[in-house]
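Allow me, if you will, to draw on your knowledge of protein folds for a short while. A protein sequence and the structure tokens that stand for its backbone fold form the material at issue. I would ask you to consider whether the tokens describe a fold that such a sequence might reasonably adopt. Thank you for your consideration; the sequence and its tokens are set out here:
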Amino acid sequence: MTMYDLDSLARLANAIYRQSLPAAALNETAVKPGLPEQLIPAPAKPSKASSPDPPAEPDLRPEPSYYFLTRNPIKKSADPNNLTATSGRDVNAIRQDFPILKQKINGKPLIWLDNAATTQKPLPVIEAISGFYRESNSNVHRGIHTLASRATAGYEEAREKVRRLINAAAPEEIIFLRGTTEAINLVAASYGRNRIHSGDAIILTAMEHHSNIVPWQMLRETTGVQLRITPITARGEVNLSEYERLLSRSTRLVALTQVSNVLGTINPVRTMIEMAHYYGARVLIDGAQAIPHLNVDVQSLDADFYTFSGHKAYGPTGIGVLYGKKELLEEMPPWQGGGSMIQEVSFEKTTYNSLPYKFEAGTGNIAAAVGLGAAVDYLQKIGLAWIGQHEQELTTYVRTLLGKIPGLQLFGTAPLKAGVISFTLEGISQEDLARRLDREGIAVRVGHHCAQPLMKHYGIKGMVRVSLGMYNTREEMEQLAEAIAKIVKQLR
């Protein structure tokens, strides 16, 4: 099979997509990656309304289904049943790095299938945090003594590791915060309140986590900005035709998840960023569920902002990252005031610090940053390409097993998914099912998963969610399916 670079795939996909459009629609098409400027139709002049009215006739265009998301796309192995042989990694050896997996729950070996909520921590991360407190505990940047120098070096080394992980252009584009939620709130408060006004529009998708919904609603309350919601298809994919229809010159920001925490859908974020940029909109990507599964290159994606949490990527809680393009971060005012974010303070005026410290007021979670740096090292040692392949194979396998269980309904059937499988089971409440699985040592999550609008879309209040990590095994998938099948028999 001929291999193409991502730009070639983008042009090919766009050409195929444009061939499906009615002739009249070509004058309004927003996606033109790679086309010569003279062949790009000028966008229609924006109306006074923030977005065009929906068409009277239903849209019969086929849904695009092209994806090009990572620097190193995951390749299917020849034998999905033999993970170790095809990958060159030993899952059982990896499991030895995670001490929590050695314990028993209710007399049964722990099977951790709640990785989308938080991942377990390998020994190098645990030891990095412990070592910091044993040998280097100090505040950073403002001391000249030995421990301050050690702490500062560890903190800034972690920043550089994150920069390399996501291929940011410079370390000052990496802001340490508590997590994805705080990062999105920072962008909403600093960028949003200064650059987005009444009559402007922000576009979200129907599969967003609450942390990528509520901050924009709060911004709407203070600025009057309009929120536009991109619907999803029956397979749980973003409907790109509708997304294109929502885009206009009044669109100031698009905020979307790269990987759904409920459906596992991997969204075509690079394409969506290109489409938004054509209309002059900025794009924020919620990468909380992407970082532990995919290679992410923010420069290749051309993301304006990218956010993620350390604890979902085998790092500690209380630490997360906001990436922003340097020129945008420099224009944004500080979000919080206090120590570290200043250069000079008087009662008449304060001069703010340079990036990234302008957004890191007060004492940060220094030990957690060091732990995050160790988690990045660990991810790269194992290899994100292998992790993605391993989890993809497990996802396919467990979906096949669960699909054979009577009364079990799976949600999210996109062809490209991360290791998240959500379902309901007829005849039993989610909570009761989770409690019964816990008796077997199996940890899953139930509820709305901080995605209540998505639950409303499906007409239910919640789902059971199984989410995978690098240390999960084929045998655990079989034990999960056997435990659920046993529960079904008990219900009859």
